[in-house]
Design a protein that fits this description.
The chain is globular. It folds into 2 domains: 92 residues, Immunoglobulins (Immunoglobulin-like); 243 residues, Rossmann fold, CATH 3.40.50. Helix 4 crosses helix 5. The protein has 9 helices and 17 strands. The relative contact order is 0.13. By secondary structure, it is of the alpha/beta class.
Length: 350
């Protein structure tokens, strides 16, 4: 029995285990409402107050009796065929009325070519990067978009399909993607000066040797990758013209106490405070921010957007009706990433 929207609540039902001693909903903690199901006529039911979201990613936690007590199992909703792959495994999805996947996922796309390379710099390990470029553009100067968490952005948010479709439609000029692999993600994507210099210094120069870059570079990412995209952009590097950050982890003590035990919280909060304290910039950037209106990062994204505008950057900040996940970030690429790229690159032609 798939979940169903009824007036002011979503009804979840699970009929697969009347013998269970408990069933609960596993979903993002920011979604309001209880999680415990009640057993009604051999069917477990939960009425969740309708959140202001387009979609809910969820699983069921089923607790059953076993010989020496009880055991809990986390499962997908067996009656719901809508499933999404996430960075943390598969999830069932409740899609609200009116939700639609982006049209560019099914539109014609230019074929692309992938080339692996490594960026050597100050980091302990080299930074692996995979370059995606339209077939037939080898050796041509093209605009460059560097993507933190690049493989995940491609597998879970279809970033190369986005670029290929927008090039095919003429909405964006031919361009390349540099898909950066997060080998030491927590250490690198937490304000590490060595990582930032490796990307913005030696990194862009190394990429340009094999893949000539035309015009300003744009850097993007989500969560810690969104924080890192902005920190790279704010370096004094003339090649960078734009930043696109989704659900950036701009941790502050006043908003993010739940993250205070994270190993790199203090380093991140110091870097964020430096941004909040900026009052002017010599090199304004085009910056796009998206974040779920209900997610934990919403307040710190609002603060960062306001600080960047005060300092003189050209900033757009959009709150979306989804949460901290790759489908939300995929769905916000059009128009928000496209707007940033067009503003930075203009009608550049490869």
């Amino acid at each position: 029995m798939p979940p169903k929207l009824l007036d002011d609540h979503v009804r979840f039902r699970f009929a697969g285990a009347p013998e269970a001693v408990g069933v609960s909903l596993d979903c993002d903690s920011v979604i309001p409402g209880g999680r415990a199901f009640a057993l009604v006529d051999d069917v477990w039911e939960l009425a969740l107050p309708r959140p202001d979201l387009q979609r809910i990613e969820y699983r069921f936690i089923v607790t059953r009796p076993v010989e020496d007590g009880v055991a809990a199992e986390t499962i997908l909703d067996p009656d719901n065929p809508v499933v999404v792959e996430t960075a943390f495994g598969s999830r069932s999805v409740m899609q609200m009325p009116g939700y639609a996947v982006p049209s560019w996922l099914s539109e014609p796309s230019v074929p692309g070519r992938f080339t692996p390379m490594a960026l050597e710099g100050e980091t302990v390990a080299d930074v692996p990067v995979t370059i995606w470029e339209p077939e037939g553009s080898e050796g041509q100067p093209l605009p460059l978009l560097l993507v933190n968490d690049g493989p995940e952005y491609d597998q879970l948010a279809s970033i190369t399909q986005f670029s290929g479709a927008k090039i095919a439609s003429g909405e964006l000029p031919p361009h390349r993607l540099a898909l950066a692999h997060p080998v030491l993600r927590d250490a690198w994507y937490s304000g590490s000066p060595k990582y930032l210099r490796t990307i913005a210094g030696q990194g862009f120069s190394r990429i340009n040797e094999d893949f000539p870059t035309q015009g300003p570079v744009v850097v993007m990412g989500a969560s810690l990758g969104g924080l890192t995209a902005l920190l790279v952009g704010l370096l004094d590097v003339a090649e960078i013209g734009g930043v696109f950050s989704q659900s950036g982890s701009f941790f502050q003590h006043k908003h993010d106490g739940q993250e205070s035990s994270y190993k790199y919280f203090d380093r991140i909060s110091r870097r964020v405070q430096e941004i909040l304290d900026m009052r002017s910039v010599a090199r304004p950037l085009r910056i796009g921010l998206t974040c779920g209106a209900l997610e934990e990062n919403a307040a710190n994204n609002r603060d960062i957007a306001a600080a960047l505008r005060r300092a003189g950057h050209d900033v757009t900040h959009t709150e979306v009706r989804d949460l901290h996940n790759y489908t939300a970030w995929r769905d916000a690429l059009d128009p928000h990433l496209g707007d940033v790229l067009r503003d930075v690159w203009g009608d550049a032609q490869g």
